[in-house]
Specification:
heterodimer, A: about 230 residues, mainly alpha, MetI-like fold, 11 helices, B: about 250 residues, alpha/beta, D-Maltodextrin-Binding Protein, domain 2, 2 domains, five-stranded mixed beta sheet, 13 strands, about 25% strand
């Protein structure tokens, strides 16, 4: 056991931790920004827009994140017109490719979570709001969305943990995230156990923080739905 | 010379005893993403110089071989865990690796060089991005000799070529022969060329590529060394060499 080499390289792990945190947090936030309107549309309509959104959700939930990342990173770069376009400024960079893939992936899963949560809001709550004379927009803003988001919390917590663990695929496109650092240590000193165990411990701590945060949020915002026992 | 006689004697004894000292079949770790030394066919079969040499060596030793395709990252662990008995994957003999595994004598030795878009020069590298395969002598070389150049680490050499062709990196450092045949001579390599000198610094680049075996398995190691000399002498090496390269890549004796 050579954990001293892990300690010697703690800056690398700190950098990896920051990279993983950054990518996961941004992807979840952007994913949420995608999922909120998309989920509402999916829950409330069956029009052409809703079907398009469904196709997006289907594509991103139906394929592995690693394949999506490969398609965006290596796939798009093989076309010369992509490399000549303005988008290349962003697609050239591995970090942006990872963020795009992660955000779209998280957005697809979260769309379904929010759709389910919106549909589970009892009709009575909405009728009550309507009977107070609120406009449809105000019903959505003041009643429907807050009520749906509260109900989405437990599942959303899961999605964030999945995204955190899914983010390890960033290491295959040269990004030095937590796993990337573990791999580098493994390649340089052949420290498979020490490097990957340290990586596993860091992921576990992050996952624990996410789970704990969501548990507090649930207590605060979902407590009123708790059945008295 | 004494070493040679001893090794030959050991190999002779092995062949005489039908390889009874170890199993008749031997598992060999190969990589499969390092053309023309080792690449993977559409059928999943691994082919290339390393594989032909592996078969020739094992044949010479009176055994048969099973190729075990292993990622570069996991190739030394695979040997140590016994998933294979030898590594024949263009692995350079370095002091760092010798602390973990043991090597036969070299079976080829080729220099390292930069490649980049035509017109690149070593004096232009500052502020540029150079790609290398993670955990190779080329990573050590870059970190030691070009500490101010941004380094990007890839799991395999094939991925380095993809990003070089796409323009994500400005240059790549690697084995000159592998990059010439694996990239520069292919369609994707049009417009790219070698630049800077051909490097062969023992501190980084070792003594050439050898067969990796577990420490303490001197018999197997010496049998491989002897077999390398035997196929050199019999002309089998030359036949395999000429299949892939215009020059003899064995390097100096």
């Amino acid at each position: 056991m050579r954990f001293d080499l892990v300690l010697d390289n703690w800056q690398m792990f700190a950098g990896g931790l920051w990279m993983t945190l950054q990518l996961t947090a941004l992807a979840v936030l952007i994913g949420f920004a995608i999922a909120l309107p998309f989920g509402l549309i999916r829950a409330r309509s069956n029009g052409a827009v809703s079907r398009l959104i469904n196709a997006y959700v289907y594509a991103f939930r139906g394929t592995p994140l690693l394949v999506q990342l490969y398609l965006i990173y290596y796939g798009l770069s093989q076309f010369e017109w992509v490399r000549d376009s303005f988008a290349w400024v962003i697609l050239r960079d591995a970090w942006w490719c990872a963020l795009i893939a992660f955000s779209l992936n998280s957005g697809a899963y979260a769309t379904e979570i929010i759709r389910g949560a919106v549909q589970s809001v009892p009709e009575g709550e909405l009728e009550a709001a309507k009977s107070l004379g609120l406009s449809p927009f105000k019903v959505a803003r003041l009643v429907l969305i807050p009520a749906a988001l509260r109900r989405a919390l437990p599942q959303y917590g899961n999605e964030v943990v999945f995204m955190l663990h899914g983010s390890v695929v960033a290491s295959v496109i040269t990004i030095q995230d937590i796993l990337g650092v573990g791999r580098t240590l493994n390649a340089r000193y052949y420290l498979a156990y020490e490097g990957f165990l340290t990586a596993a411990a860091l992921y576990m701590v992050l996952a624990f923080v996410v789970v704990f945060t969501f548990r507090q949020l649930e207590k605060r915002y979902l407590g009123y739905l708790k059945v008295a026992r | 010379m004494k070493k040679f006689i001893l090794a030959t004697a050991t190999a002779g004894a092995l062949i005489a005893s039908g390889g009874g000292a170890f199993a008749q079949n031997i598992n060999i770790c190969v990589e499969g993403a390092y053309p023309p030394f080792s690449s993977t066919e559409a059928s999943g079969e691994v082919v290339g110089f390393d594989i032909d040499i592996a078969n020739a060596l094992v044949n010479e030793m009176g055994m048969s071989a099973t190729m075990v395709k292993t990622d570069w990252d996991g190739i030394i662990p695979a040997l140590l865990e016994g998933k294979c008995d030898a590594i024949i994957a263009s692995m350079s003999i370095t002091d760092e690796r010798k602390q973990v595994i043991d090597f036969s004598d070299k079976y080829y030795n080729s220099p390292a060089q930069f490649i980049g878009a035509g017109g690149m020069g070593e004096d232009m590298l500052e502020g540029k991005v150079v790609g290398v395969q993670r955990g190779t002598i080329h990573q050590d070389f870059m970190e030691g000799e070009f500490p101010n150049v941004e380094l990007r680490l890839y799991g395999s050499q094939d991925e380095v070529y993809l990003d070089l062709a796409a323009g994500r990196i400005d240059a790549a450092m690697g084995d000159a022969i592998a990059m010439d045949d694996g990239f520069l001579k292919t369609d994707a390599g049009a417009g790219f060329a070698f630049f800077g000198p051909a490097y062969s610094i023992p501190k980084y680049h070792g003594e050439g590529a050898g067969v990796g075996v577990r420490q303490g398995e001197e018999e197997l190691r010496d049998a491989f060394s002897a077999a390398i000399l035997a196929i050199r002498a019999s002309g089998e090496y030359a036949a395999i060499n000429d299949k892939y390269f215009d020059i003899d890549i064995y390097g100096g004796e």
